[in-house]
Structure prediction request, 436 residues.
Amino acid sequence: MTRSEENYLKTIFHLGGGDSKSISTNAIAEQMETKPSSVTDMAKKLSDKGLVDYVRYQGVSLTDVGVKTALSIIRKHRLWEVFLVKKLDFTWDEVHEVAEQLEHIKSEKLIDKIDELLDFPKYDPHGDPIPTKDGKFQERDEKLLSEMPINSQGVCVGVKDSSVPFLKFLDKNNIALGNTIKILDKEDFDNSLRIQMNGKEMRISHQIATNLYVKKNP
Amino acid sequence: MTRSEENYLKTIFHLGGGDSKSISTNAIAEQMETKPSSVTDMAKKLSDKGLVDYVRYQGVSLTDVGVKTALSIIRKHRLWEVFLVKKLDFTWDEVHEVAEQLEHIKSEKLIDKIDELLDFPKYDPHGDPIPTKDGKFQERDEKLLSEMPINSQGVCVGVKDSSVPFLKFLDKNNIALGNTIKILDKEDFDNSLRIQMNGKEMRISHQIATNLYVKKNP
DNA sequence: ATCTATTTTTAGATTTGTCTAAATTTAATT
DNA sequence: AATTAAATTTAGACAAATCTAAAAATAGAT
Prediction:
């Protein structure tokens, strides 16, 4: 399994190709910043290896083996991210690039030991769930902040957009995972929110609210 | 800098090419288990990049930049080895293969943080010195066990051969770095040694004695 | 149902790193 | 100094992963 093959599987999974849903070569190319013709070539190769189902002009979806492989790479990526933050004091906006490299290290023992060292974390620094060794996901009932009703409360548990600028913006405004949030008011005009976070009142734009995951209190 | 280029620089350094000494393409090919013609190709490329001096039919040696680059890769390799042993309970015969992969991860911050986490170790698990960030080596006055005079004493500080079979052999015979050694007698017939190690008396073949480094007591 | 715009694939080229086989240079021996 | 053996390089080929440009298939609109 080459690094390139692994990156394709991971991308297809992230685009939803794990649920027998067909992903277009164009969509994959755009996500990976490559050309559709390159994707076609790789689709054939992965199909020959039994990792994706590929029908010409119909896109690709992951086979069971493909899903399993993708999950093991995502597992490694997210565990390394936790390692970088928890053990080496990286910030959550610094980890992605390095984890993109570390996820391709081939050693089952290594990643199992990292998992153990971190005490088997369930979520990465951006709140994304870490698949278990046997490829299971811990689903979590979370909502986008923008979907929460007025007067409801919750805890900030993840980000949808984990780009560096967004993460830095959150830092600057003291918005961190684990913070408690109460929706005070919605502004019909621009869909912005008035919220209370850790006691303090603040205003949140719609753009931000659609990129923050909240776990609603019962 | 590609992974392949890094591996060539590392190999040339290990073969002594860091001291303006010319290393033959054949020697490099043999060490890397590749073909001399492939080495020639890479020699040209590294020469174009100013990392080696290459004269046709005369072999290659590292430039100053080449030495610096090689040392930074060796530094990463050895730091990762320490990490694997100290933090993840790998044994000293398991670390090489994984470190061969980890040494190519590109992140200065990562390796500096690993260095810090390990409290700036000076030697790797096989007793090899770890170059500093600015490419300096800690030289150490060490001798091969086979070169120690009768009745002299020392501490076992490193292995010359760090192959898996040799390391496993040492483990099986309770020979570990840090052990104290006293040479009791030499057998002229087969050059074997009678030694005292950590109090116990034992016999050591010449083959073993030429692959163990000892720091002689004053 | 046909036409058109879009998507997707094919064909052929490119780059990197490798190889084999042949040619060349160097080194060793007489 | 000539000859031979060994080391080294060159030339040409290949596989992986990519690209461009042209061709083919699909989907949407009328």
Observations:
- Residues 2, 4, 34-35, 37-38, 41-42, 45, 56-58 of chain B lie near DNA strand C (CB under 10 Å from a C1').
- The mean pLDDT of chain B is 96.
